[in-house]
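Structure ticket #2291
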Amino acid sequence: MYRFLIVLSCLVLACAPQQEKSDQAPAAETAQVQSLSAQAAAPLLKQDSSIRYLDVRTPGEFNSGHIAGAQNIDWNGPDFATAVATLDKNQPYFVYCASGRRSSEAVAKMQALGFKRLYNLEGGIQSWQSQGLPTTAP
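Resolution: structure written out below.
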């Protein structure tokens, strides 16, 4: 009888579905998100040329002056999530808007989409310009 129970236990354990173990944590846990002042951001951006710039203002705002090399994807546009989803999630992104509100929301959305390293400009491009940091001329 005992042998039967041992054999039955082994069969049950062998046939039970196995849970896969993942070495990767969910995207939200592994994402690095940091809000930076313009003063703190400027030296970081000079030091790390891999950081991409993402301006989430409207096209009109973008055309009035932006950080050189920035890509424009309008946070309020109907295709923001679709457009952002096409970006490389492993690249670091420096996200800004006019005052910091839209970029904070965009960073949260990007984090939920699995982006790994995100920087939000506190105070937006207004703060950037008030520190005398360069933007393109309209």
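Closing remark: The longest strand covers residues 32-36.
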